[in-house]
Design brief:
1 helix; Leucine-rich repeat, LRR (right-handed beta-alpha superhelix); mainly beta; 8 strands
Length: about 180
């Protein structure tokens, strides 16, 4: 098993990541942001120690299920500035997740079981195409910051009152 714990590959011209990424069993931080990735291999199941995953500024359209199934210690995930239309339901298994940035994508829905991520403190899903929030959203009682700006949400319901700091296209007032 490889002993690499931190792998920084950001700001290159990568178009793919080899499937052998899954052999990096001691990997704790992976940054492959600002590349030209269209997809990721479904071999993250072997990255059981991964804590931080930076995938922003690529061209990804989906997150492979192996991230939710294999990276159960994941605390930080930045998938912003991609072309994501969905974040898989596997995210419900990421119970240690404290930071999720999925802004600037094409998300129409937040996974219905996002509320299983009860340690989530920061959530940014701004600049997507969200129309509603799942009922489990009310379970995110540790949220300190939740950015919902620039979506097409019409109703947020009473669940939003449990969140201390929310940006949701609120009007600004001046004197």
């Amino acid at each position: 098993m490889c002993a690499i714990q931190i792998l920084e590959l950001e700001s290159n011209l990568l178009k793919e990541i080899p499937a052998t990424i899954g052999v990096l069993g001691q990997l704790r931080r992976l940054d492959i942001s600002s590349n030209s990735l269209l997809d990721l291999p479904d071999t993250f199941i072997g990255c059981g120690e991964l804590r931080q995953l930076c995938l922003h500024s690529n061209q990804l359209t989906y997150i492979p299920p192996s991230i939710g199934n294999g990276c159960l210690k994941l605390e930080y995930m930045d998938v912003s500035r991609n072309h994501l239309e969905t974040i898989g339901e596997e995210v419900r298994k990421l119970i240690d997740l404290t930071y999720l940035d999925a802004s600037y994508n094409r998300l129409a829905l937040i996974p219905r079981d996002i509320g299983n991520c009860t340690k989530l403190r920061f959530l940014d899903v701004s600049r997507n195409q969200l129309t509603t929030l799942p009922e489990s959203f009310r379970n995110l009682t540790c949220l300190e910051s939740c950015n919902l700006e620039h979506n097409i949400i019409k109703v947020i319901g009473s669940m939003i009152s449990t969140i201390p700091f929310v940006h949701a296209n609120q009007p600004t007032y001046s004197d």
